[in-house]
Specification:
It is built from no helices and seven strands. The chain is mainly β and 81 residues long. The chain has one domain: ATP Synthase, domain 1, CATH 2.60.15.10. Strands 2-1-7-6-5-3-4 form a seven-stranded mixed sheet, with no helix packed on it. The termini are far apart.
Length: 81
Amino acid sequence: MRLSVVIPEREIFSGEVLEVILPGASGGLGVLPHHAALLTTLKAGPLRYKTATGETAIELLGGFAEVTPSSVQVLADGVKE
């Protein structure tokens, strides 16, 4: 599935991933391909994603996420760099 992470200044990541774990407002939210569509707020915390080569984390400062069966779009307030 396609993951896109964007902050107001630029795109942080865009690529194909196997799994995404989001810091949802009500707790961690795991997303796999073919997940049901949803829109959620995100709290500050790590967004983790897995690719064929390993796992990566991006420290978000909050935002929103839109999940479709084939993609995850994250509109973050910012990231810790």
